[in-house]
Structure prediction request, 413 residues.
Amino acid sequence: MTARTPGQSIDVTADLAIVGGGIVGLATAYRLLEARPGLRLVVLEKEAELATHQTGRNSGVVHSPNTYTPGSLKARLCGQGMAAALAFADAQGIPYDRCGELIVATTPGELPRLASIAERAHANGVDAREVGPEQMREIEPAVVGLRGLHVPATAILDWRRVALTIAAEVRARGGSILTAAEVGAIRRTSSGLVLETTAGTVAAAHVVTAAGLQSDRVAALTAPPGERPELRIVPFRGDYAVLRPAARRFCRGLIYPVADPRFPFLGVHLTRRFDGQVWAGPNAVLAFGREAYRRREVDLRELAAILAFPGFQRLARRYWRTGGAEMIRDWSRRLFVRALQRYTPDIGLDDIAWGPSGIRAQAVGRDGRLADDFVIAGGPRVLHVLNAPSPAATASLAIGRELTAMAIERFEL
Prediction:
């Protein structure tokens, strides 16, 4: 395999191609080369740079598996991935901070849910302890609430730096990474698959896809004519606010509300970043395009496809009140601050400014149900990651190991 230079047409032959240059795809490449040295492997990324979507636009948290259903892939791989990520960071000299997190219940109605989170945390092997108001103020002086759950092991780091370091390891182990190589078609042959990309043609015996916001579309390229995966990606944009420097005192680590168990979103929370900034958010609103990161950005073709999907229609009918409230708050800094004031009442309107945004690739079934767990599916010569939103960055090295084991068995590598 040869390195690509801008404008050069390429033709690559590989034992295995990975579609997607985010942290999950890169971690999978790393684990495969770790397990099978000498494997001819190529990673295909449609953007000019790696890790520019979910990997490069998240809050930078190394999650503890507090809220995930015991026995689920999320619970298992988040726990394994957290340990693996911090071990990798240690080995590579990537700094991180175990700043801890505090989940805050502010109403009596939230106390049973907080207790349920504590039960899940303990079942998943997390060191978590319930604390009262005085103990909460010792941990986070600006917090007000009835009761909290403190998880000291939760950490923060720069996930894009981790992804780029993994990419360097992939190259050092003989793997090839091709950027500006968007996959537009996948054809089956007697010996494998041929991927037509914007950078040339890639022939591979086997393919693993981890395409994030485009995961269902890429998976559909290997499906029989007329078939599509049952799950469809519905993009949810999360907008962050940034606390002004003088207001950073309101948050020492990570402060979360008690999440609504009906949704795989954590609610508007406060996150100390490794660079010293404090971000508030994100909220969760429908994005008007899979990569429409700005509030006024609309991709009419993609929006029409989202609205026409029966799964989204059922989801919208079920949760239109919640979705409408999120949309209103997305345009109102005052309402955004009011959500923060539930547990940090001293934060004021002048303490925040609108900041960056990210888009969560959330898989939704035709029945309108949100996929609550990681979803991996396969077919002849292919494996697809169909749902890997947060905590996928935390779990990435564990997801990569899981996919590697599956690939070795299925593909007889």
About this structure: DSSP finds ten helices and 19 strands in the chain.
